Structure formats: structure tokens, C-alpha cells
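User: I'm curious whether this sequence folds into something compact or stays loose and floppy. Could you predict its structure so I can see for myself?
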Amino acid sequence: MHAIIHIGSPKAGSTALQVALYRNREALAEAGILLCPGGPRNIANAYTDPRRKLVPHERAEFTSIAEAMDASRRTLDEFIATLQRRKPEIALFSSEHLMLIEDKAAFIGFLEAHFERITLVAYIRDPQSFYPSALDQQIRGGYKLRQLPLPTTFAYRFHEHLNAYRALVGAGNMVVRNFERGNLAGGDILVDFQAVMQDLTGREVPLEAPGFTRNQSLPAIASLWLLSVNEEFNLRDPETDVAIVARRFETIRAIRDNPALQDLPRLRLTHPPLVQALRQATHAACAELNEVFFQGQQTFPLGDGGTPPPNPVLRAELKTWLTSYAEDAAALRRFFAAHMPERRPPDPPKS
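Assistant: Here's the prediction. I'll summarize afterward.
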């Protein structure tokens, strides 16, 4: 049996791909491809860092990381039992959190015990587009302005994770794709993943797009509002009331799904001082990705080297960039007045 594992990375179309896979799971099964059930974290948690704290949305389901890890192990064991019973030709896993798991060797060992062939598939996003998308995710997750990573402290180490996996499975068992639209077949991850699967399996893979998006970034002004809210309480504190966490994510979904807000700009990193600092800080990582993993593909732009400015300077530039979106506050105020009058309108983030 052949195991194909989409390991992410985060913020590189993973949610859109997972929604499409889930909606087409019956057609995939008819084609001899069985999809591992469960959410991305549930698949990966068996091999996560046992010292990490639960992220806010996990707290609605689990009371400890040990409990989350046990649930993940049960999911994987049940899937293996299903595979042994149904005997498909291909097992398919998809979790962006597998890119970052603590115990990659144990995960690969688990796969080797059950599959004759293993292929890892990864999509990697350019740091200039990944950085604002990651900030959006972190703001939604409760980060305060002072906690947001700077270009110089941003954890862009996908080359290290890919190298760790390559040492375990071999370069010939990895497919690493540059996520930039111009590099993807059809300019779309679903089309590209279909092409990858066809190359790996020799068969056409049914993967109809769901017709909607999930986990897309918020309007930038909504991120500013959330930053101001984040200053008032610690969302990431395990003692924070789960009901407050749930209410927050309901508000985020309402903002994301409101048609009147869809045309507002999302965070885009065009602020020159931050762009230059990010390119300088990620130069070595991008150069290695280009040379080792993107052969025959469009490559990432490389900065001119050099030393980025001091962190206090970059922190001020980060605030300047974020608050440049404050001019869209009126549209978000109208949204709150119409849909959530009990909530206060957005304010710029505090220093």
C-alpha cells in the first residue's frame, strides 16, 4: 500500500485542499484512495511536542496536550484498522502540522510499519507572502502587538524541516512545490495537487473544488481590531473562559463571511523597510529551498544580503505598516453596528 502524506506547510493552501479532499472523499475512495479522517491537528498531535500548550480552539475539546495526543493516536490506529479491512491501494493523509511535528522519526517509523511506499508532498510559500498571512493567523490566535514576530525573529525554517524529512525518507520520496501561483499547475493548489497525485499514482484523482474558501485571512482592519482586543485579555491563558474563546471565534467567522467586508484589503507586505529586512533574514533559507527543493520550478527571490536594522526600529516599522490600514475602520464600524452592536468598534493597536 502506498501512503501519500501532504505535510503542509501552514498557510500554503492546506485548508482549501483539505476541504476539497473531505468533500470528495467518497469519489476518492471509489478511485482506490482512502482519506485519513480527522482535523489536521488531530492527525499530527500524536507526534507533537508534549510540552506545548493547547491552542485556543483545542481547549474546547481537550483539557491537556496529553489528552489531545491520545485522541490523535486513536484516530491513526482506527484508520490503520480501516485500511487493513478495506485494503485500498493508496492511503492519503493531509495535515499542515505534520511539517512542524517534534518527533518526525517516530511518525515515519509508524508509516514504515504499515506501508510499502511512502511519499511526502509539501507546498512552501515565499516569506514575503507567508509573513503577513502568518501574522493574521497569530493575531486571530491571541497574540499582542509586542508578541508578533519581526522579520528578524520570524520562524521561517521550512528548509530545516524538509531536510529532516529527506534524511528519513530520501529525496526520491518527496515532492516539494513552490506555492507561488505562477509555479502551480493551473495557478491553483487543487489543480497542482491533482497533477502531483496523477504523477505518483498513474490515475486521475477526482478533486472538485468546493466553491467556497476556508481559513482565508481577515480584512486588515479586522486584524487591527483583534489586536486591540488582544491587549485587554490573554486569550492564550489556559484559565481564560472557554466561552469567551468560542465567542471570539464566532465573531471572527462572522467578519470573514460577511459579503460587505470581502473587498476590504488583507494584510500585504509592501512596506519597504520590512520587506528588505525579511529578505535579508530569510536569504539563506530561500537560497537552500531554491537549490535543493525547487529544481525545475520557479524559485524564490533572494535579497541582497546585508544586516537588518535593530529590532526596536523594526518594531516601530511593524506598527507603522499595520496602522496604515486604519483608514478602513468605517466599514468595520458599520458591520458592528448592523450585526454586533454590543461590541465596540476597532481602535488602532496600542504600543
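Summary: The longest strand covers residues 117-124. Residues 2-201 form a domain with the Rossmann fold fold (CATH 3.40.50).
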